[in-house]
Design a protein that fits this description.
CATH class: Alpha Beta
Number of helices: 11
Distance between the termini: 21 Å
CATH topology: TIM Barrel
CATH architecture: Alpha-Beta Barrel
Order of helices and strands: HEHEHEHEHEHEHEHHHEH
Structural class: alpha/beta
Strand content: 15-25%
Number of strands: 8
Helix content: 40-55%
Length: 285
Amino acid sequence: MARITRLLDAGQTLSFEFSAPRDEAGAERLKQTLDRLSKHRPQFMSVTYGAGGTTRGPTRDWVRTIRDYFQVEAMPHLTCVAHTRDEIAAIIEDYQEDGVDNILALRGDLPQGIGTPSQAFDTAAELTDFIRARADWDIGVAAHPEGHPMAASVEADLTHQARKLAQADFAITQFGYRAEHYDQFVNQLDARGIDTPVIPGIMPPTNVAGIERMSAINTTEFPVEIRERLEAASSAAERREIGVEVAVRLGRELLEIGAPGLHIYTMNFARAASEVATALGWSAD
């Protein structure tokens, strides 16, 4: 339908991220979420890829559903660490048959108890090169403004991320809650001659335990002042209101400093993401 680089050239973009559900109840909820969020006319939506390829089929199915039924550009994520090169080649062929134009190339994590297969890729950069040689797609990668959790040092991390982004057409960041982290990261890339568009990811903080867990995994800051406000809330509705307020303020700051768009992590729920999009000017039909 449309390459993400062309969508970015046309102006600041709105996008949403989803995960392939594990059961029928989750599938029904996701359909309702997609129905609501598609009315905001996002430039694209993305579907995550389960650890070790556990959602290989469902991810592909939901990408087709988003594109064909909801008429929104859909981008699959693809992780490589648990796949052989032949398996990755087969997945690329599947998406070529489906007419995919964009993909997010990720290293990913191994499921517990699963070893790395022989002839697997070690990095997302290797996966990007492999895809580039086989498919005429726009290829995105993940970016970590606050540093990759496995980085040996700040300088080594920036060098690695700059090299990875130089091979990609765009990047999407892990979620964060301070615009200055994003701004500093982009400036550091610019100083290294990297001008690849970096779309910041934002997640309305409505669940303290969930945000703390994911922040620890990604080594991103969960500001104390936000956590304390959420912990003091007397109801789920109040926590959602706070989370939306935080995300809207952050989104405005990011757009004002020149972010090429916003990528909203939805956790497959519509309401908070919809309220954030509306407040930022992307009203639903």
